[in-house]
Amino acid sequence: MSNFPPSLQNLVDYFSHLPGVGPKTALRFVFYLLKQPKADVEKFAAALGILKNQIAVCQICQNFSEKNPCAICGDSRRDHGIICVVAEYQDLPVIENTNEYHGTYHILGGVLDPLHGITPDQLKIKELVARLKNSPPKADPPLAENSAIKELILALNPDLEGETTMLYLTKLIKSFGKPIKITRLARGLPMGSDLEYADEVTVSDALKGRKEM
């Protein structure tokens, strides 16, 4: 039986439901909030309420946004002929922060993992298919006439689940018979790595993706 008041224990239980947060960490969160000024805690609670009331899912790319479509999908300056497919929401900022990519995105919401029951119908694959078949998308202001999708970048992790998902998407998209170029992120030696300790697959990918100096 808990030695804490029910209201405190209830909050601990809610925090414990967060990914990577155990009961001890949840308890530290609650004690931290208890030490904060009442106004700050009220602002925190209000922010949680806004999270569900004002944040929606973009009807085009499936990203979280306060607008629908989101700022990226509704931006006529972006190249809407290119879609970068990522697995999770947190993957998008990683690519966006490079300032090297100026196309659009599509978030699958995970990767295929039959062992854990994650099948194609549980991912945002049918929404991606709809985008490919109905391009160019509608936007305000209108997009350029050449915004029909011409390239799909599969930016998924190079692990078993990621590779399986990329193979599935490649076969699916090629079956449409549309002239859509399908690419994936280059792989190779990361900056600061030691060639001596690199595995054969990494070195092989680095050789295949070599560039002229």
Main β-sheet, in a few words? 4 strands, parallel
Mean pLDDT: 88
Number of domains: 2
Distance between the termini: 67 Å
Figure out the total of helices: 7
**Per the principal axes of the C-alpha atoms, what is the gross shape?**
globular
- Multimerization state: single chain
Cα gyration radius (Å): 22 Å
| Helix fraction bin | 25-40%
Portion of residues in beta strands equals 5-15%
Describe the structure.
By secondary structure, the chain is of the alpha/beta class. It has 2 domains: 6-54, Helicase, Ruva Protein, domain 3 (Orthogonal Bundle); 79-184, 3-Layer(aba) Sandwich (Dna Topoisomerase Vi A Subunit, Chain: A, domain 2), CATH 3.40.1360.10. The protein is 38% helix and 10% strand. The chain contains 7 helices and 6 strands, in the order H-H-H-E-E-E-H-E-H-E-H-E-H. It has helices spanning 6-16, 23-35, 38-54, 91-96, 125-133, 160-174, 200-208, and strands at residues 56-57, 64-65, 82-86, 104-107, 151-154, 181-184. A 4-stranded parallel sheet has the order 4-3-5-6, with no helix packed on it. The chain has a two-stranded antiparallel ribbon with strand order 1-2. Strand 5 (151-154), helix 6 (160-174) and strand 6 (181-184) form a beta-alpha-beta unit. The protein is globular and about 65 Å long. The mean pLDDT is 88.
